[in-house]
TrEMBL record:
Designated gene of the protein: trmB
EC number: 2.1.1.33
Organism whose genome encodes this protein: endosymbiont of Riftia pachyptila (vent Ph05)
Protein name per the record: tRNA (guanine-N(7)-)-methyltransferase
Family classification: Belongs to the class I-like SAM-binding methyltransferase superfamily. TrmB family.
CC annotations in GO: tRNA methyltransferase complex
Pfam families to which the protein is assigned, alphabetical: Methyltransf_4
Broad enzyme group: transferase
């Protein structure tokens, strides 16, 4: 992607990571990358063949943060397409810079709310995988309702996955891991890849994200959950 080579400005990346607001030059860089990687939600459902220009499997990553995992997956798996959804603008900028640096053509980014995306814009049975790594844990009991993993989330992901497709979640909050296990285990049509009630071993190829590194420094454990759509 030669036209984006000029945008390989590491200072921009660190600025975007630190700040929510960008200078005019940084905004221009952001704008120049957006046509390559950004996408808008359509009025109705996404046409993934049109969005990616091919019929390869689509994997959705929800809340990709600064995009470490998505960028690495896109680079490592050119046979798949990756759609990332994130509300945080600086994270979107950071991921676009990574994708441009590694000249990935198989990733698109939607800046917005994952729940709205799942409810309104993902065709049923269209996804091969859904990734949710270290979602905000909302540890206080009165905030638990803000957690993204709820019965409606599980049902929407089930509808979005093709039969055999998978949901891979990871968290470093034990209570949230137990909540995820409870929600997914009681959603019809999912099978736990590790057997009922079991957490999965950490897949070797799961990228160590910034949030996981932070958890490791704090001595947190990590729980992986992988469920497949069986019906
Ligand atoms: C704790 S961070 C984890 C980021 C990344 N997955 C990682 O492991 O480094 C959670 C991320 O989810 C994003 N997020 C939270 N709710 C979201 C939603 N409804 N739709 C899209 N992104 C969301 C936040 O902006 C934040 O970047």
């Amino acid at each position: 992607m030669s036209e984006t080579n000029a945008l390989k400005h590491r200072p921009i990346r660190s600025y975007i990571l630190r700040q929510g607001r960008m200078t005019q030059a940084q905004q221009r860089a952001f704008d120049e990358l957006w046509p390559h990687y950004g996408c808008q939600a359509p009025d109705g459902l996404f046409d993934f063949d049109k969005l990616f220009g091919n019929q390869r499997p689509v994997i959705l990553e929800i809340g990709f943060g600064n995009g470490d995992a998505l960028a690495q997956n896109a680079d490592r798996e050119p046979e798949n397409n990756f759609l990332g959804v994130e509300v945080h603008g600086p994270g979107v900028g950071s991921l676009m810079l990574k994708l441009a640096e590694q000249e990935s053509h198989n990733a698109r980014i939607l800046r917005g709310d994952a729940m709205q995306l799942l409810r309104q814009h993902i065709p049923a049975g269209s996804l091969t995988g859904v990734l949710l790594f270290f979602p905000d844990p909302w540890p206080k009991r009165r905030h638990h309702k803000r957690r993204i993993v709820q019965p409606e989330f599980a049902e929407l992901v089930h509808r979005a996955l093709r039969p055999g497709g998978y949901l891979h979640m990871a968290t470093d909050w034990q209570k949230y891991a137990e909540h995820m296990m409870s929600v997914l285990s009681s959603t019809a049509g999912f099978a736990n890849a590790a057997g009922p009630g079991n957490f999965s071993p950490r897949p070797e190829n799961r990228t160590l994200t910034r949030f996981e590194q932070r958890g490791q420094r704090l001595g947190h454990g990590v729980w992986d959950l992988i469920f497949t759509r069986c019906v």
